[in-house]
Amino acid sequence: MFVKNETLRLKIQNEFLKKVPDLDKLQQRFYNVNSGKRHGAGLVDCVKIYSLVLNLEKNTELMSTIIMSDSVKDDLLTPF
């Protein structure tokens, strides 16, 4: 689906994937808070997670509308 549809791929990449924070770093910061270590997560890190969740909702809506289009359904059902 993404190989054949360049505009879809670029839209997902530009509108969603570029906004995804480094989840490994965030996980480590939240772990540091939980274990009482220095350099734990702060309010900025919480906002990053919140923004990610909002972007996931938008991306889910976008993907569901794209999948409902007939051309994409054909691409999904056609074997390689």
What's the gyration radius in Å?
17 Å
Total count of strands: 0
- Quaternary status: single chain
User: How much strand content do the residues show?
Assistant: under 5%
Q: What count of structural domains?
A: 1
Judged by helices, strands and strand pairing, the structural class is: mainly alpha
Reported for the largest beta sheet, the result is: none
H and E string: HHHH
Terminal-residue CA separation: 10 Å
> Low-confidence spans: pLDDT under 50, at least 5 residues?
none
Envelope shape: elongated
Provide a compact summary of the structure.
The chain has 80 residues and is mainly α. Helix content is 71%, strand content 0%.
Structure description:
The chain has 80 residues and is mostly helical. Helix content is 71%, strand content 0%. The protein has one domain (6-77). The termini are close together.
What keyword list fits this structure?
80 residues; single chain; mainly alpha; 4 helices; 0% strand
Write the layout of secondary structure elements.
Elements (H helix, E strand, L loop, with lengths): L5 H10 L7 H13 L7 H26 L1 H8 L3
